[in-house]
Amino acid sequence: MAPDCPLCAGDGGTVVWRGAHARVVLADEADFPGFTRVIWDEHLAEMTELAAAQRGAMMALVWCVEQAQRDLLRPDKINLASLGNVVPHLHWHVIPRWRDDSHFPAPVWASAQRDGDARRLRARVLVAGYRDVLAARLAALAKA
User: Fold this and answer.
1) pTM (2 decimals)?
2) Alpha-carbon gap, residue 2 to 6, rounded angstroms
3) Which residues of 46-58 are buried (b: 16+ CB within 10 A; e: fewer)?
4) What angle do CA 25, 29, 32 make, to 5 degrees?
5) How many CB atoms lie within 10 A of CB 11?
6) Largest alpha-carbon pair distance within the chain?
7) In this structure, how many other beta carbons lie within 10 angstroms of the beta carbon of residue 20?
8) 3-state secondary structure of 74
9) What percent of the chain has pLDDT over 90?
């Protein structure tokens, strides 16, 4: 644990699921409904610091989140990112994107390209059930 790390000191979002070594959270990004993080609990910076089985488990979580987003939210694209430049704690961003969101086709961290209010409001309706279904899928994955 690194006391100055926000992902060690807090959850990093609204917890959807917590396993033995990782957690999945909704990032609570108002402009990007469904934005989800998969966070390794131990303070490590890179995937290669994990054992092979741990890397597989981490990516299985990422893929489970991506599939749930595809099935439930039906975005035009999903962005996967593991940057860690600002917070060097191993985590993946799984971000559903729509062609009319405020930043598309640029990354969510870039400048807005347009107002994304219409999509954001439509997507919030979809996201309402996403959390519960995602939690169930992650629990089933953990049991497998």
Assistant:
1) 0.91
2) 9
3) eeeebeeebeebb
4) 105
5) 13
6) 43
7) 7
8) coil
9) 68
**CB of 40 closer than 8 Å to CB of 22:** yes
CA-to-CA distance for 48 and 3, rounded, in angstroms? 23
38 three-class SS = strand
* 31 neighbors 116 (Cβ within 8 angstroms): yes
Which residue, among 75, 90, 85, 91, has the nearest Cα to 36 in the 3D structure? 91
127 sits in which H/E element: helix 117-143
Mean pLDDT of 73-78: 93
113 closest CA partner among 48, 31, 37 = 31
Q: Which of 95, 8, 22, 83 is nearest to 53 (CA)?
A: 22
CA dihedral 107, 110, 113, 117 (to 10 degrees): 80
Nearest CA-CA partner of 134 in 39, 61, 33: 61
Beta carbons within 10 angstroms of residue 76's beta carbon: 13
The CATH fold of domain 6-139: HIT family, subunit A (3.30.428)
